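Below is a typical protein record.
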Amino acid sequence: MNYDKQDNYDYNRQPQDADPDDSGDFGYYAEIKDDDADDGAAAQDSMEEYSIPEEPSESGSSGKGTGEGGAKPRMRPVAWRLMLEVLSNPVEGWKAIRRNKLSPAKTQSECFYPMVSVVAITEFAVLFYNPGVGIAKGVVDALCGFVAVFFSYFAIIVMAKLLMPGDARRALDTNFGKVFVLISLSTLAVFYSLLNLLPMLEPILVFLPLWTVYIICRGARFLKFPKEREHLATGILCLLTVGIPWLLGLLFSKVINYQ
């Protein structure tokens, strides 16, 4: 009697996805297995819903996106440090600049504009060495120094395109060519600042711009001028880099003093 009830119970509990030809306890245990799987999936969804997210790292990521082994990305050096490297070791400095792929905008903001400002500020040193000079003289000299070096960059680019051969002038149209001019002018600004701060050493410091000429000559090969035009293009670039700031400074001082 009990056996008949169990047999009827098993056939009535047969799951829909079971084989119609199967009978016995298989359908019962299959249904229990499906219920356990549904409970496990629901529990997993509940855990994901209430799981606590990882705290982001200092760089704004969860730590897995910092590279292999969690290593932080290498920071690129600032432009003014690379300029100092060019001053101390021109060849290695130009290699470092080319390797770090500095942009003209980054070079201007991190190196060129600060150095132009330093030139203008050091013009006020004349007030300490010659107290009889009025502050107006310092303001005029600072304005002339700032404008001369600042506009030299644009003047050099324009004049180089006019004076250089057609196949050589394209080197200055690249990002590295523009950075090359900016770094060269920044080294010149360092020497101008030293001349303003130490006027008693002018007979010696006046030759410092020749080091800028040497820096340009050592780095000209990185501009990849055509071989047959390399010496001519390098000479023109040296004359423009050293001569234009001096000419503009002289011109602006004459105009302002005339008025």
